[in-house]
Structure formats: C-alpha cells, structure tokens
Amino acid sequence: MTEPRAKARLEVRQAIPADAKAISALVRRAYEELPAYTMSEIRGQLNNYPEGCFVAKLDGKLVGYCASMRLDAAVALKPHTWDEITGNGYGSRHDPTGDWLYGYEMCVDPKTRGTRIGRRLYEERRALAERLELSGIAFGGRMPNLSRVWRKVDGPQDYLDRVVEGKLHDPVLRFQIANGFEPIGILEKYLPEDKKSRAFAVHMVWRNPFVDRDQPKKFRLPRGVESVRIATCQLQARAVKDFKEFIGQIEYFVDVAADYEADFIVFPELFTLMLLSFEEKELTPLEAIEALSRYTPRIREALSEMALNYNINIIGGSHPTRMDDGDIHNVAYVCLRDGSIHEQEKIHPTPNEAYWWNIKGGDSIDAIPTDCGPIGVLICYDAEFPELARRLVDEGARIIFVPFCTDSRQGYMRVRYCAQARAIENQCFVVLSGNVGNLPNVGNMDIQYAQSCILTPCDFPFARDGIAAEATENVETLTISDVNLADLSWARAEGTVQNLNDRRFDLYRIEWSHPTARHQDDPHAHPAIGPHTAGGG
C-alpha cells in the first residue's frame, strides 16, 4: 500500500492580492526600524506586475516576499533613488517592454534564518529573467553595517571595496555577491529612511549569461486582445410607488446589459433619489437624506443579488449612507458577480451637498479587485481632482467609473472635461453615467443634464476623438461598448506619449497623510509617514 504523500512544508509561488495583509505584517517583522508599506502600495505592487512578485510560505505562514518589475536599461542602470524608480512604492513604473528585471523589495522573516528563503526568492527572479530572455536583474542593495564603521572608512565606496576584499563583513552584501550579483556603483540618497546604510545603496546587477550582451534583445508589446464590455445607464428620474417598483426599474437595465453579455453596468450618482417620490410630503433636505439612508441595507442586498443572478458587475451609482459615527456619506456600492460588495465613498462633497444635506467626505480611495482586473470609482466631483485618479491607477486600476449628477450643461461639462483629462493623463478608460429628467417635490432633482459616455486615451489604438461610445443628451438609454485593456498596456509602453512612465519622480510626488480606511482594519498598521519602503533589493 502506497503511503500518502506528506504535504510540502515550503511553498514558493507568485503573490496574489489575498496575500497583501500577510505581506504587510511580514515587512513590519523584517524591518522594524523602517516605515511600513501601506496596503495601497502593496496592492499597487501586486497589480502592476504580478508576474514579478513572489511569496514564500512555510507551514502555512508567509515568511518571504519579493517584488520586481521590468525596466529599460536606461532607467534601471542609471543613478536613481528608491522612490523615483518604484513610483513612490507602487511599482507603477513597470515597463512591459523593459529588458531588465528590477528588484525593489526583498524581505524574509527573521525567525526563518537558515531555511534559505531569500535564496529561493532570488532563484524565482532569476528563472523569470531567463524565461523572458531579459538582459539581467538590477537593484539597490542595503549595506546595514555601514553606520557601525562609518568613522573607520572613507565613504560608502571604500566600505564596499573592503567588503568585496573580505576585510569587512556585511551580511546583506555578502549574500547578494554569493548569489551572483556584482556591484557597479553607489546609489546616493537611495533610501533616506535607511539609517543603518546612511541612505546609501550598492547598485547591484546580475547579467543573464544566455543573452548576447552585444546585441540585447529589443522587446515589443504585441497588440493583444483583453476585451471588456461596459454598459453605462443614463437613467430617467421617475416617480415610483414603492421600493419594489424602483428596484424593478434598475433590474430592467441590469437584465438588458446582461443579455448583451456586459461585464460591467454603472448607474448614476444619487440614483436612489427616486425613492423620495412616494413620500407623503416633500421633505426638507436633511429629512430627505435621513429617509434615503434607511434604505441602505435593502439597496446593498438588491444590487448584490442582481450581480449574482445576472452574472454582471454592478457599479451602484451612489447612495446617501449613515456611517457608524453618525455622519452621512455619499457611497457607491460596487456589487460584483462573485457575491462580494465593495464601497467607495465620495471624497469631496460639493458645496451644495455639504450645505443642504450635511454630507461629509470620505477618507479612503482604493482600487477594487474584479474578475476583469482592478477598477476605480470617482463619484462626480471627485473626478475633478487629479490626485485621486492617479492613486487608483498607481494601484493598478485601468477602468475608472464616474457616476455623476449634474443639473446644467456647465456642470456636466466640468465633469466631462475632467474625466477626459483623467483618461489621457493616466492612460486609462473612464466611464460616465448620469441622471436625466426631473422629480417634482424631490430636492436636487428639479432638472438634470447628462450625456453618459465611455472615454479613452487619445492615441492611435483608440477612437479618433477619445470617445468609445456616448449617449444622446438627456435621453434614457443604455450605452454599451467593448474596450480593449491590452491597448492601454501598449499605449503606456509604446504610445505616442507615455504619461505614466514620463513622470518626474525626482521632482514631485503625491503623499497621503494617513492610512486608508481599508488599512485601518489592521490593528498593527503604521501611520503613513513619508516614503514607504522596507528596504529594496
């Protein structure tokens, strides 16, 4: 009788989004003296180049993590800082045509020393570089014993020379050299938080012996197909007699979009205001918001059931919701066809929302994982703040949905022009969905103006005018279009302009002042203080 095979104790594999919390905890254990990553940064690393991120699990516990991306030699081999090369920790400078693999994170649980976890992760990187026929691997290596002997050496280069000659000991450099890496110089101000290395790093490279160095391979990104079908609902405001009739109106459009095999359907901002039409009397603004917020559990449940039953991802416009602290926020409920429900609060209430309805702004903006890749939601006014879209794209979002509610053409055009700008500067798709018509005796629904649309970057793979599809103005309709996410990858790598790659990280950065709400559910989460990194390499 054959004995059952014992389960392997050690597993080394590609990292997945579900590993994010465990990775965050590992980084804190491995580098107590350095600021922790935010969950946002970890999500960006895993989304921007998942093939370059690996984890090691020992007896079911995550004990090793490394992150890497592809870069052109002109970027990977010239002097740089960690923030500059990684896009402030998100790995957002990944270039799918790059001929070098750049490692910017490597950490191992201190309690697993002796199990060669680090070596195994390096082997995964090396195997990836060889399989892709890349020129090699580069990174900035720490030199943690530098501070101890600073008065005894003549700077970081002298320290490096002595380590190479065996006159000084540095465990990190010794490990990297033993793994076939060679130093090509010193990187100054690489990681200001790394006090042990005095902010210096050793520029290390491994050259792929299976690639002709005199004729490095030039990579081109094929114009592949990664099709996603999107439906945007331009919704007519109408009086309804009860909640069931309202949901019936919404389900009609979900049904139609599902019949067309759409992957997503998006509804307008405050599309639930129709629920006020069957109130016995016109409510004051504060009474109206209070009445709407009581429908929140039923809205969530109804949209989630539709997403499951019709096999479609639903971007539920937005709905006023009373939060745990008693404040009212304007929240988009994103109900996915796998049964999960995500929330995205409006960050910036308009002056009218704040004055009449006392709506407060949220403090969390994050990409949402879906079966079509990460997406983002910016509710109306939020689309007019470019920092928010940039954060979503840094986290890996390639489609941004913008539910809106505007009463005039001027208001609509503000949202429309800003949304088009977000599509261009972030090389992503932006989808708008608005209300039309009016509701007597319902505040904020006196008149509505909308022309819902699906916007694209402006470059050769896309529609000539940057519009994949758009609805007729002020007419209730469903507008459907296919978009090719692979075109975005091509445009970012080989397009006429390459906004994401060409950012000047040496001059400016976006820094968030505190953890996101999704990070706050981790009791050990550190506040976001300056650049976030655990070490590089």
From TrEMBL:
Cleaved signal peptide residues: none
InterPro entries in the cross-refs: Acyl_CoA_acyltransferase, C-N_Hydrolase, C-N_Hydrolase_sf, GNAT_dom
UniProt-listed Gene3D superfamilies: 3.40.630.30, Carbon-nitrogen hydrolase
Coiled coil: none
Domain (N-acetyltransferase): residue spans on this chain: 10-209
Species of the source: Caenibius tardaugens NBRC 16725
Gene Ontology terms for molecular function: acyltransferase activity, transferring groups other than amino-acyl groups
Residue segments, region Disordered: 517-537
SUPFAM superfamilies: Acyl-CoA N-acyltransferases (Nat) (SSF55729), Carbon-nitrogen hydrolase (SSF56317)
Protein name according to UniProt: Hydrolase
Pfam family, one: CN_hydrolase
Superkingdom of origin organism: Bacteria
Family annotation (CDD domains): NAT_SF (cd04301), nitrilase_Rim1_like (cd07574)
Stretches assigned to the CN hydrolase domain: 228-485
